[in-house]
Amino acid sequence: MNRVATANSYSTVLNHLMQAQVRQQEANTQVSSQKNATDLKGYARQAETLLATRSIQTKVEGFLAQGDMLTSKLEAQDLALNQVADSVQSARQAIAEAIATGRGEALMGEMSAWFSAASDSLNATFGGRYLFSGGQVDTPATSARKITDLTAAPAIADLFNNDGLKPVNQLDESTTIETGFLAADVGTGTFDAFRQMQAYVEANGDFTGKLTPAQETFLQGMLGAFDSARSTVTDYAARNGLIQNRVDKTLAAQEDRKAMLEGMVGAITDADMPLAITKLEQAQVAVQASAQVFNMLKQSSLLDMLR
Known about the structure:
Helices cover 69% and strands 4% of the residues. The chain is mainly alpha-helical and 307 residues long. The strands form 2 sheets. The chain has a two-stranded antiparallel sheet. Strand 3 (168-172) and strand 4 form a beta hairpin. It is rod-shaped. The chain starts with 6 loop residues before the first helix and ends with a helix. The relative contact order is 0.17.
């Protein structure tokens, strides 16, 4: 005799159909997002590890962002320091040529131009802040713009506006490094050499026409002063290069660390795509099977039997 009561069968088949639809939705979410879950609840026991790893990731990304900005700043410093050194070298070359030719008509004009170039480089900025002003980042590192400013001031030290605070940056959790220089440290020798030139002219007159023996003797002595000034600036440029190398190595280590952490997070969060696709296909088959059974059950109702 055929069964007439189908309520329990309906309930069972409907429950299986709903469960199959839920599994299909979960599998479809995994395939579309390529993640095992959409929230921490879905990772259960691994949630704590995931949170800790992502916290470290945030720190590493912060160090990388700061390192990228620091790299750009150090490049700007390198350019400025080399421009100062080049200005000093060019001034020294002008003196050597004047001695070689025995004439100095244009010498002070060149001195004035090269001093202005050196001064502008010491007042270089990065991100709207003066590089060599120490903590006084909104104040030009030096107020001397013309070579005549050098002899107008009581002392060379009065021409520098920097304080004694050297910039410091943190490279990682345990490493900090001085990354900046002060205008007074970099430029005092340079300013002194140019000041001697200007002071001589103011005391003895400009270099006009053929050089006198006294002028030649003075200029011969100035070659050493400019060599010393350039050596000082070059030394700071070399120090800046060493800092750049250290920052580059630290950034490379942080990039490796970032990749490792991404791998750890991925091992927890990234779905196994072949397995996820297989689960989706199985879930789709289960939904279709449950729907087919449900449809067949509908056709075995009491009304159908009475017909």
